[in-house]
Amino acid sequence: MTDAYIVNSTNSYKYNMDDIADLNDKQQQAVMEFPLPESKAVDNLLFRFDGQTNEAKLTFAIINNGTDRSGGTYGSTVITVAQQLTYLKTYIFTEGASTYWTLTEADLFSGGITGAIIDLTLKKFPARPGYVEGTITFTVGTVSS
């Protein structure tokens, strides 16, 4: 069963992620404080100059479990760890200025969230051959070119 997946809007390629180790959904809205002289914290004036931001960070295992991680969306299968690493770096995290992605996960993002991948980190563990940990940082929003 796929825990989460991400789809690239430019090429419609999909990457299925299983074995989710960590999933963070962070929503923020910046506030500027103006503390008045000789006042308590509860008396501070608070101003909002920016809208809300939402960032998702997903850590998952990249392993060869015999399944095609592209879910049939790529021209050939993406099964081995080496194939998955190349596929993620070349076909999922692409450089197109107008490219956006949709991230779907059953609990937090069941309807899918749209935005941009801002970071892809791949971490190899020499003591665990055939295992790589991937982390995708995703910011929600509308991508303009």
In words, what does this structure look like?
This protein has one domain (4-26, 54-140). The longest helix is centred in the middle third of the chain and has 12 residues, at 81-92. With 145 residues, it is mainly beta. It starts with a strand and ends in a 5-residue tail after the last strand. The protein is built from one helix and nine strands.
What characterizes the major β-sheet? 7 strands, antiparallel
Query: What do the pLDDT scores average to?
Result: 91
Helix content: under 10%
- Overall structural class, as computed from helix and strand content, comes to mainly beta
Which radius of gyration do the C-alpha atoms yield?
Answer: 19 Å
- Percentage of residues in strands: over 45%
Work out the count of structural domains.
Answer: 1
Q: So how many helices?
A: 1
SSE string = EEEEEEHEEE
Spatially, the strands of the biggest sheet line up as 2-1-7-8-9-6-3
Task: State the total count of DSSP E strands.
Answer: 9
The shape is elongated
State the separation between the terminal residues, measured CA to CA: 35 Å
Low-confidence stretches: none
Keywords:
7-stranded antiparallel sheet; two-stranded antiparallel ribbon; single chain
Quick structural overview:
This protein has about 140 residues and is mainly beta. It has one domain. It contains 1 helix and 9 strands; from the N terminus they run ββββββαβββ.
Topology:
Elements: E1 4-8, E2 14-17, E3 20-29, E4 32-34, E5 45-47, E6 52-62, H1 81-92, E7 101-105, E8 109-124, E9 132-140
